[in-house]
Amino acid sequence: MKNNFYLVSAGRSPDGFLHYLLRPDKSGLIIILLLLFNVLATAQDTPATVEFPISTPIFDTLITNPVLFDKFEATGFNTIVQRADNSTQGLLEDYDLLAVNADTLEYIYHYSTAYYSKWEAEQNQTDLSRVGVKHSDNLNNTFGEMAFWDSAWCWSTIGLSSPTNSLMYGPHYRQEKRYKRWHYGCTSGDGCLSYTPRFRMALHNPNNVNANEDVCIIKVVFRWREKNDTTHHDETFMERTLKVGDFDTAGKFDDFYLHVNPDSAWYEYFPDFILPKDFALMEGSSSALDYIDWEPFTGIQFCVDWLRSDTLCTLYIDYAEVYDNYGWNDFIREPEATADLIKNYADSFSSWDNIEYWVGTNEPYTIDSYTPIHIVDSLIRSVQAPPLVVHFDPSWWYDFKINGEDEIEMFYNIAKPEKIYLGVYPVLADWNVIRPYDLEWLRFNLQRTSLLDPNFWFKAQCFGFRRDSNNEWCIWRKPKSPELMSMVMLGLAHGAKGIDFEWFDSQPQWISNCSGKVYIE
After folding, report:
1. Cβ–Cβ < 8 Å for 116, 367
2. What share of the chain is helix, strand, coil (3-state, %, to 5)?
3. Do 82 and 187 belong to one domain?
4. Claim to verify: residue 95 and residue 196 sit in the same structural domain
5. Lowest mean pLDDT, pick from 16-20, 150-154, 195-199
6. Domain contains 420
7. Burial of 38 (0-12, 13-18, 19+ CB in 10 A)
8. What is the spatial order of strands in the sheet that 473-474 belongs to?
9. What is the DSSP letter of 267?
10. Would you say residue 515 lies in a domain?
């Protein structure tokens, strides 16, 4: 039997636990309670409805602390965000669970934090300011044309009799430079994240052009601009010239890497392009926000330059794809075996009858995240396991669009989540009261989310970071009671079907920008 008493708080008491918040000085919170109880009472009067989820995450190393857990039980929350394993099963059996198993090679989380995108070459994004494969220049001249070859729609050099570097380029989108695996260490240098691109192409050579003649250049180009300058800069990470002899002699499609040895065909971002690992370090860092790759016309590109001045042979491009080298590379090498790892891991928890969702990657800010999320979700659902949710926090420093695309809409359309689990944290350390601007940003994102997914859940901010040296707020400030009320009411007014209060406990964290140890309040 799950707890049916619901207590909502505006933040942490001095010792950091939510259950103290209905003190006399917190009387304004009664409004939140009445509003939530009204939602619950209405749900009880409606047949075939479920409990309204009110949840909170507890830092996983503290959940087995009996003092902490007793305080959590006293709050009456009915849902918890927590690790699922033998040590927590007995504690969590009376609660709906959002299971966060994020240690190394726990497969649901591991592969949902991988990166993969596939870009079909026959697509032709004519609006050059948007994300997509392009075949035109800024004068609207299109190079090549769509064709059907070797059982696939593709892009071709039909009609071209001169070289062009606009045969295929784009899509122009921001990539992550670090993994979002909070329990992992880095595995490959400062960037901790490297990518392998590959191009699927074929060459029709009816005139038996000499095998040593050039055909095309394939390359990865990163376009960016400095924050205070309008000039675009192009960094070619890797390139390779392909000759006639590199292609299948029968004109069949084949995979082409940026190096003869595929194991050496990867790239990673230069150190100057890698934001600090700790979010708190971003502002004022030598690399933080000094360059921009999230605007239109910026970001990564997978390019094919046509080199020939004749029509003796025809190049066909099926697609370009890119994957990370500590995650989705497993799917590229052994797709069935990797899928089985994920399904078997999910199935190993089939005796848990209280897992509502598995939790995947946190705050995906790149298109490369969305396809792995969708595939992992599909795999675990295929064995009747609970679906995947990810905490989606719109990237406020990019406005609401990344590379010209609506961020939430693109996530929803590609990842296809069972529900959007929206988190927006508008209470910032620089202001003693929440600004109207930040409340409007919250309202704007709640509205956009509710239009896409009427069943979304909302994460309300209940934490702040403190500097260890002088006890000042750092990055975020703990909300005051009226501020939390405003967040919760906005969420409910926009139709949120669950409220999550983050966090429950106070837990030391290492965030160097805040002068050392920082506490989640």
Report:
1. no
2. 25, 30, 45
3. no
4. no
5. 16-20
6. no
7. exposed
8. 473-474, 465-466, 516-520, 507-511
9. B
10. no
